[in-house]
Amino acid sequence: MNNRTNSKALFERAKNILIGGVDSPARAFNAVGGDPIFFKQGKGPHLHSEDGEKFIDYVLSWG
């Protein structure tokens, strides 16, 4: 299992720039625990994380 070290480092950096480290209260993860995943690329429903993981966006970005 990926430990998401790149996403964790980027989140720590973002906390110094953005309030809570994210651009939306809905993405703050306080209610669900854990840290957000940072993505480097997305095309259609396919997302690629900064940690080398591949995802399919089944919720279509909640919109």
Distance between the termini: 29 Å
Proportion of β residues?
15-25%
Radius of gyration: 12 Å
Following the backbone from N to C, one meets helices and strands in this order, namely: HEEE
Mean pLDDT: 85
Please, how many helices?
1
Count of individual beta strands: 3
How many separate structural domains?
1
Strand arrangement in the largest pleated sheet: 1-2-3
* Uncertain parts: none
Percent of residues in helices: 10-25%
Helix/strand-derived category reads alpha+beta
Q: How would you sum up the major sheet?
A: 3 strands, antiparallel
Q: What is the global morphology?
A: globular
Q: Quick summary of this structure?
A:
The chain is an alpha+beta fold.
Structure overview:
With 63 residues, this protein is an alpha+beta fold. The protein has one domain (5-62). Helix content is 17%, strand content 19%. It has one helix at 5-15; strands spanning 39-43, 46-49, 54-56. Strands 1-2-3 form a 3-stranded antiparallel beta sheet, with no helix packed on it.
Please tag this protein with its features.
alpha+beta, three-stranded antiparallel β-sheet, 63 residues
Task: Break the fold down into its secondary structure elements and pairings.
Blueprint: H1 5-15, E1 39-43, E2 46-49, E3 54-56
Antiparallel strand pairs: 1-2, 2-3
